[in-house]
## 1
Amino acid sequence: MKLSIVNYGAGNIKSIQFAFKRLGVDAVLTDNPEEIMASDKVIFPGVGEAGSAMKMLKESGLDQLIPTLKQPVLGICLGMQLMCKYTEEGNTKGLGIFDVNVKRFSNKVKVPQMGWNTISNLKSDLFKGIKDNEYMYLVHSYYAENCVESIATSDYELEYASALENDNFYGVQFHPEKSGSKGSKILQNFLDL
Amino acid sequence: MLTKRIVPCLDIKNGRTVKGVNFVDLRDAGDPVVLAKQYADLGADELVFLDIAATLENRRTMHDMVLKVAEQVNIPFTVGGGISSVEDVDDLLHCGADKVSINSSAVKRPELINELSDKFGSQCVVVAIDAKEVDGEWLVHLAGGTIPTEIKLFEWAKEVEQRGAGEILFTSMNHDGTKAGFANKALAKLSDLVNIPIIASGGAGNIQHFADTFKEGKADAALAASVFHFGEIPILELKEALKNKGIPVRI
């Protein structure tokens, strides 16, 4: 199993690497297109602000590469949001892998949403062995709208897509690497895809 | 539904937990990594590690500890104590910390909050505020509550939100250590005033106190140390009780 984590300078990669290490897989942090293309699985992480993350991604040229990948790709948190069409954060055009927009929660709720929320309406092999309404850890101020590509939904102010799937591309808004044993199970499922 | 968080706090000195810990049969209750794993298994939602020595010599030890925790623990954790620069935070996040907590350094130089949230995102910036009610006025205190300032709690809370804090950890020095309940009035006022999550700290003594701080205090999370460390309140029991009172928790 060759697992790559796309390195474009975004956020806390260590936790993701450790989470896979606990599953017995060494994840390689890389920005090398050949190395990414030659991987069995690819993780697209992201923490921070969408506009500057997208800028870093463009500077590395990886914005062109990612949508062309054929192996399973998992976007996590901001990684998932950047795989969408557009995000209100920094008025940023995304990679357009998922046909959905990303919006900001209103001030009717506390922003960011921070903590453990349930994921429901699960429909993907990514969630094999995970029961509906399982708790996952989330930290985010922006959300992907519920859409046909949703494979999980969560409720915070409204029902939104907390996971997305399109062909070989997967995205999760929550942090499986920080979501206890059930989160690990989802990462294992991704490795098993 | 987003659940209310239960957050044990561990005081660290030279890479070891300081106050005694006696809630399970552990061979080494001084090892923060072992403890953190236990807490994660027992249902804690998040952990806070506070470096109470926070000297320069201690920094490397702290980094080693953070690395080990990140390696072995699969729930989020915050690291606080002695953090005063962007570089400090960069180091800790690279070691695998999810969030950092700043306190005195933010009071001394409020721009630090902007710098951190611009560079790392507000989701990882917790501003800890220690305050004491003096003659009906809540005033911010420094150095573990020992040094009073002229800064008013509610004004400061608003300011840290505007500067980009992602969360506020509010400790009432009037309540800390009393085991008589949290400062729910001040907490509720804070929660109405700002639109970021509030962690209640100081005063936990029994299960009802947690229920009160989530309901009356409108807190998003509750932090405690000794009641957890000495097994006075088992986390699972606490969560079951909260659930029975209609408070959303992760079990």
Note: Residues 56-72 of chain B form the longest helix (17 residues).
## 2
Amino acid sequence: MTDISKEAMMPPRSFLSQDAIQVFYRLLAALLICAVLAVLSDSFLSLGNILNVLRQASLTFFIASGLTLVVLTAGLDLSVGANVALSACIAGTVIHKTGSPALGILTGLACGGIVGLLNGIMVTALRIPSFIATYGMLWVLNGLTYWYMAGETLHGFPAGFRQIGSGYLFGLPIPVYLLLVFLGIGTLFAQRTIWGQEIYAIGANPVAARLSGIPVARRLLLVYAVSGTMAGLASIIFLSRLNSAEADIGESLTLPAIAAVLIGGTSLFGGVGTVFGTFIGALILTLVLNGMNLLSVSANWQPLVTGIIVILAVWLDMKTRRRAQ
Amino acid sequence: MSDAFPIEVTSPTPLLELRGISKEFPGVKALDDVSFAVYPGEVHMLLGENGAGKSSLMKVLCGAYRADAGEFYHNGEKVAIASTADAQKLGIAVIFQEFSLVPYLDIAQNIFLGREPKGRIPGTIDRRRILADARRVLDTIGFDIDPSTTVDKLGVAQQQMVEIAKAISQNARILVMDEPTAALSDRETELLFALIARLKADGVSIVYISHRMAEVFALGDRITVLRDGRRIDGVRPADVTPDQLVRMMVGRNVDMTYPRNFADKPGELLLEVKGLSAPTGISDINIEVRRGEIVGLCGLVGSGRSEVARAIFGADPVTSGEIIFDGKAMSGEPDLAARRGIALIPESRKSEGLALLRSVSDNLVVSALRKLFPSGLFDQRAAQRTSDGLIRQLRIATPSARQTVGLLSGGNQQKVVIGKWLAAGSKLFIFDEPTRGIDIGAKSEIFALIDRLVAEGAAALMISSEQVEICHVCDRAYVMREGRIAGHLARNELTEENIVRLGMHHA
């Protein structure tokens, strides 16, 4: 009797890492949503719909994957949506002016990356809290984009370029391939490189990380630059898929990306979470919206449902983690 | 028993008397049967080394800690001090070293915080009355300042005056002051002493914690010396010499022994610090550490020991001076120092040494990532193998390398912090209070480990407030006082008395 109670008092011995457990629960949740939707709607399981869900999820994922790294360091990048808009408009202009999609893609990625780097400089060299630095950046980028576009819309890009967002390869949309590639790269980077390990360490305790000899400022610069570059990538896919660019295309992107990160189990306090979790977060978010469309629930309800899912997911995370402590 | 002062006093009954107070924390007896009496209108000096129990006694007095055993008497009547409200009712107020003022409120609002006179409209403050009341309180302590000045515009000395005014406004009859002159200039100190004389004349009693011999003799009516949580003696300044006080504070407990194999001859010079000054308050620091040596860095808390450690490690900027490590000059961030082979084991393991939510393995390899994985590719299994080796070598008690490090005991957490630098292959280990909050068994294990490290050619710079430990373990030691090196003690001069004598303020 006493032995048993003593054992119960012992700290839990974790055979599966907390991260693995969280990803597992999320996969279950995603499958559950799929099962429910498959029962409720005939068209859910159609190939067309599933590919549509994956393509939608990929757009959120590109932005959210870079953002995941930022959130892992206990930071936040609120400028990703505005960054997508500016990068898309600049890339679109370059393609129009030069006729070269390759040059346009490079400019879009570079624009995104530079914006991210500027965020990183504000956070490290100027020590402005990331929330405020990137919030300010959001307005600056919006201002630049509106001034640059002056109400115009860029429209009509070469057919080859449009393939990136709308084309298919062996029956799968090209963005889905890109999704798999970047999911792989992101997971490898976070879990299998020493930079990834250092990013987790910084998020878990920035003071201890610095005093453990981690070059904290350089890693933060990298993380914000990656987040910006991923926004640049997303801008290319948007540009190609929409076949047009306007100043306001980024306005509805940032909050869903943050939602995907949070639903995916990455803690805003840093040090906890995975890129794969964010992928499932983006998937869950898209599935729910897709399901509501299929069931003809008014689109007006979507923000409310998203909000409830975010709160539920984070609350459940905190509960399970507290139990693990 | 309780009357430790057979000599006549101004009033026969103490204003406040503590009898047989004990307070225990896991692993430490902070206060052990301490009796202590404060008479009306006296300045009672409280003396003791770091960790002697002064702070604990102060916290028991003001109700922040609840004593495990013991009795309180107020004017001869038995009372209870179970909360800060109880203490306040008895007229006890504490002026901590860290002030508890709200910087963006003005002086009057700070004095009457939570007790503001209400205005006619509910929820408002009667502005005119609060200013007038504040003016009156400030006048009683002779502080001539506009009470509508915001506190963030005040200097340290003025903020202290506001704290005192706040205490007086709460009808404090016993004022406990924790090293009140620590941050004051000579002129400000004079003003404070004048105020203390004035308060005394009004019958206010003052319990004064000090590390400065001069003020102990200039101000004190009586002196109580604490050591290891016990009351050693109560004396009058006229009856003792500073040397006698130092001996009382230090005691002669030499029962603790730590393993140490002293080298016959120290090795080559590893660290040379020349004329180092930093904005954190250290100036003209000169230190040498050779391979095979454990060099102590002692002095009182706040004398700049940790600041020296942080400056050497690159954690704080420096204004002038040189740090030469392994023959090459060094300046830069901690990542550079770590790469060159310097390790810092910080004072606060939980907030500065570990990522508490991460695993033992994650914490053990964090400083060695580049060394273990030169390709940049991280391998969880290889990291765990390295960690398993360190866990065995350091005998870290953990169910597995995957255990969350925050769940380990203090001693085992400290071993993890040391282990991460072993993994990194560091050459110079800077320990800041390596045994704080660690039980005796783990302490000697950690000292055995440090001894082994230096025997294998590394070197250690060890900060400790435990002078016994410094004396037993170190080859030699530097003693700091007010941001400077006050002296150097060779092995044969290394005694607790010498450390305390050099570290105290005699001026």
Note: Residues 135 and 146 of chain B are 8 Å apart (CA to CA).
